[in-house]
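Exercise 7 asks you to align residues with tokens for two separate proteins.
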Amino acid sequence: MLQNIGNVAGGDETRRDSRRDGTTHPNTPATMITIDEKTSFAEWISQMETTREEVRRVRALNWKEIEENKRIKTQNDRLAAQKKPLLKYTPLPHKINSFAQECLDRESAAARLMKERSPDQWLKIIKSLPKRVQSRVACLVWWDYFGGQRVDKRWAHLDDLISKPYQHLPLADVIEGLTLVGYTPWAATCRVSFDDLSILEKEEEKTV
């Protein structure tokens, strides 16, 4: 294990930020959100699980308005194509609580910083990881941030790393590697667990 992040599933052990003196891990670039000094790895996961339940609860309360807005969107797509005035969406009466919103904002901020990285920056930060996790992390990063490039403008910076033979690693090591390149504990855990990282974002859009 790269660092002790504890039992991710059970959460009976916790992994705190790389350094307790307030400094960041030596591999941490300037454009990276680190784990809050007062929030352990397990606590971060717990907070996001609570947030997900809040998002689902509010979405259920706003169900009628959400369905109406789906219909409006379909109409607006047609109107936009015809260059006609668009219809107004129906306001959602129920909002998620402030704590859940703060948690979502924290996740969004981290994701936004990673989206702003250049391919050279990605290669540099991944190369700073222990060699045995570089290929696995590179593959996940490629799917998340490289795969959407046009074929004629594709980023080839990670090709050498993602072409290496698959090597089985403990999930905790992969999660740790992802957090060291900028994924939050929640995003890294979901990514390695094959959960859809966009689920929370989609649900948030329908509730706020």
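Second protein for Exercise 7:
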Amino acid sequence: MSRTLVEILRRLRLSGIVLDTAVKENTMTRLYYTPKEVAEILGISDDAVLDLVNSGSMPAFRVSARITRIPIAAFNQWRAGYTPRRRKVTIRPAQRHVVIGEGESLPAPSRLAPR
């Protein structure tokens, strides 16, 4: 290792940020469960978990069209009997008429240089 890297690691170790310079497995605390993990915990199928999520009775969010994550804290509350309140999202027209470019003018046309 380079001398500066060794010095940085020593300072971090002294500050308590780095306990060991060896690479460890995933030691970060997890924040989310996958539907498969929740299904194993509850003893039901993955599809049943996704049905609970889609019906709104289990708190979760979509990371993408195919990926759903369930926050561990919200899942623990749900198991204790808490039912999340779903907000209804409605799409309606704007309250006032919006004119794009109102009060603006186009720049004067520029002449192109001949080739």
